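Per your request, structure below.
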C-alpha cells in the first residue's frame, strides 16, 4: 500500500479464514483498513470505516482503525506522577493529552511479520517507542497480533515491555458500522454493554473520579438499547460528550477474558460481540465526525456513521489512584486480549 513521504514502504496484509471473512491490516498505525463479514444472507460487507489510500490514514485526524497509545484515551492536562517524578505529556486535545499525543502509535510505521496458518492466519506488528517520546518515560516495545479465527473473530493480542517505569494502555480504534453501507449512521444499531456503572466526565471529557450507576439514565445498556433512542436526551453527561463518549466499568474481573458488549444491526442481522480482559470500555458514537474525512469510495464520513468500542483501562487512571492502574515496570509484561466476534441473528 505505497510509501510514506520519507520513502519507507507500507504493506497491507490480508487475513482470510475458510468462511471467507477477511481482515486487512497495514503496518502504518497497525491499522485495520477493512473487515468483511457476512450478513444474515451470507452477503459480505465491510464493517469498518477507513480509506482507499494510504494518504487518507496519513492525513486523518480521527484514528480510523488504528492502534492508539501509549495511552489510549485522555490524561488530564497531560500530567502524571510516577515514583514521585512528574511527567508532562504532549497536549493535543484542548488542555489534555489524547491517544498518545501528536505522533501516537497510530501515526508511526510498525514492523510486521505474518504468522499463523490457514486455520488461523495472523500478522504481528511491533513498534519500539523511544524513551521520552511524546513525554513518556522509558523505551516501550509493543507487539500487537491480529488473528482471524475459524469462529469469525478478529482477535487482538497485545504484549508490551519497558526499560524504565512507565504507563501503557493501548487500544484499538476501529469505527464500526455493521450495516455494510458506510453512509448510514449507527443510530439504528442496538448496543448492550456488560456494565452497571460508568465514569462520569467533565467538560474536557476527563473523568471526575466517581463511578456512577447507569440505572435510570441514558447510559443504561444493560439490555440492548437502540443507540439513537437517548443519544440526544437533555442529560448533562451527554452534552459534555456531544453524545456517547464515555467509559463503562465492565463487570467481572479484569485480567479475565469476558463478554463486554454486543452490537447488532437489525436490517443486515450482523451481530458483533466484544470480549476483553480490560477493566473498561470506551463507547464513542462518532460524534466528532463531520464529513471532512473522505473515506472509502469517496464517501464523506458524517456525524455518527461509525462507532468505536475501545477496550482499555479507564481514562486518566494515573491521576485517579482508585482506578485500576496501568503502570508498567522493567521485567513486567503488559498483556491485553480483545476479540471482536461476528455472527448473525
Ligand atoms: C476517542 C475519544 C473521542 C474522540 C475520538 C477521536 O475515542 O473518546 O472523544 O477524541 O477518540 O476523534
Amino acid at each position: 500500500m505505497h510509501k510514506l513521504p520519507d520513502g519507507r514502504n507500507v504493506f497491507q496484509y490480508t487475513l482470510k479464514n475458510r468462511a471467507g471473512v477477511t481482515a486487512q491490516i497495514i503496518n502504518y498505525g497497525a491499522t485495520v483498513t477493512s473487515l468483511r463479514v457476512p450478513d444474515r444472507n451470507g452477503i459480505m460487507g465491510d464493517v469498518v470505516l477507513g480509506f482507499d489510500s494510504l494518504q487518507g490514514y496519513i492525513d486523518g485526524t480521527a484514528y480510523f482503525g488504528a492502534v492508539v497509545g501509549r495511552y489510549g484515551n485522555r490524561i488530564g492536562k497531560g500530567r502524571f506522577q510516577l515514583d514521585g517524578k512528574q511527567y508532562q505529556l504532549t497536549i493535543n486535545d484542548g488542555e489534555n493529552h489524547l491517544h498518545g499525543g501528536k505522533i501516537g502509535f497510530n501515526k508511526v510505521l510498525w514492523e510486521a511479520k505474518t504468522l499463523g496458518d490457514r486455520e488461523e492466519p495472523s500478522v504481528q506488528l511491533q513498534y519500539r517507542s523511544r524513551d521520552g517520546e511524546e513525554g513518556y518515560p522509558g523505551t516501550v516495545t509493543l507487539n500487537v497480533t491480529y488473528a482471524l479465527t475459524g469462529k469469525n473473530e478478529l482477535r487482538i493480542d497485545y504484549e508490551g515491555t519497558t526499560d524504565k517505569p512507565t504507563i501503557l494502555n493501548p487500544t484499538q480504534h476501529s469505527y464500526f458500522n455493521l450495516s455494510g453501507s458506510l453512509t448510514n449512521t449507527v443510530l439504528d444499531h442496538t448496543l448492550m454493554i456488560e456494565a452497571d456503572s460508568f465514569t462520569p466526565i467533565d467538560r474536557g471529557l476527563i473523568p471526575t473520579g466517581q463511578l456512577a450507576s447507569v440505572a435510570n439514565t441514558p447510559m443504561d445498556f444493560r439490555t440492548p438499547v437502540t443507540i439513537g433512542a437517548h443519544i440526544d436526551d437533555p442529560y448533562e453527561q451527554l452534552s459534555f460528550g456531544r453524545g456517547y463518549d464515555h467509559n463503562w466499568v465492565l463487570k467481572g474481573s479484569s485480567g479475565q477474558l469476558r463478554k463486554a458488549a454486543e452490537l447488532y444491526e437489525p436490517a443486515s442481522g450482523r451481530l458483533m460481540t466484544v470480549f476483553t480482559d480490560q477493566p473498561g470500555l470506551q463507547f464513542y458514537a462518532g460524534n466528532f465526525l463531520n464529513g471532512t474525512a473522505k473515506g472509502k469510495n469517496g464517501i464523506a464520513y458524517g456525524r455518527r456513521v461509525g462507532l468505536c468500542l475501545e477496550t482499555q483501562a479507564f481514562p486518566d487512571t494515573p491521576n485517579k489512584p482508585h482506578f485500576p492502574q496501568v503502570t508498567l515496570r522493567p521485567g513486567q509484561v503488559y498483556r491485553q486480549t480483545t476479540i471482536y466476534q461476528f455472527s448473525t441473528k
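Residues 167 and 327 are 4 Å apart (CA to CA).

Regards,
D.
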